[in-house]
Amino acid sequence: MAFAGFLLTLLTFIWGAPFIRVLRQRFGFLAYWTTGIFFSLCSYEMWFLTASVWIVVGLYCELEAKGVRWVWNSVLSVALGTAVLIGGAFKLSQSYGIVTRDQLAAVIKTFFQEKTLLKLPAEFDFMTVVLQLPSISVIVIVLVLAHALIFEKAVYRWFRIPRERFAAQIKLLDFKLPDVFVWIGMVAFLGAVLEWNGQNHAINILNVCILLFFLQGIAVLEYFYKTLRVGIFVRSLGYFLFVFQLFVVLAFVGFIDYWIDFRSRIRKLPAKSQDNPNARLL
Hints:
Elements: H1 2-15, H2 17-42, H3 47-65, H4 70-95, H5 101-115, H6 127-131, H7 133-159, H8 180-193, H9 199-227, H10 232-245, H11 247-260, H12 262-266, H13 270-273
């Protein structure tokens, strides 16, 4: 039951991240952190879920306002948010008497077999899930931050309020990981396919890298859509296919963008499309 509550609370605050970011930017430091403390206390044993989301979004906003570059800002915010998430989850599991990996794997197995519509094969090894919980925690926090940044513009538009901008604010269409992430990803992939003592660590690092390259792939895809003035129907269909069906393909696009630089090539396309001002794809 606690595990189900954990997931429901988590999903609630992931989807609410853009509103939380707008709250900080519109109402300031005191209102934001006071509200965060209030909701964390109201979450009772799930306090760490609320706190981790409030911390990653809030710290990112604070450092952004101070002009900290988005790369270091993201690393610091995600690291602190993940630490709170993992630390709180660890204390919660201890309070329920779950102190070993085998016990945690049994809880997760019971949840998927009895509490969800998703039926996994009987031979599925839930210990692999337990061993990858560190990367899953990082991925959750990264998704919270990404969701806040991607959809904050929509929140401002819905409520018809002016959007505050900062010099250090990232331009999502130009989002590109530092070059070092490409080499980290390749080393992690090599470590993940080889049998050695650090294989699980390599798999966790690779999981995070895949998500980051996927986000870069989304930036490339959106840049392509905007350049060709793709209509809402084709855009929605494309996102559905790539996000839910071709996730790995989009992550691969983000990975090879280091060498191909898709956006610099896409920039050359408008010169051709401008010859026909009515050229708009659905």
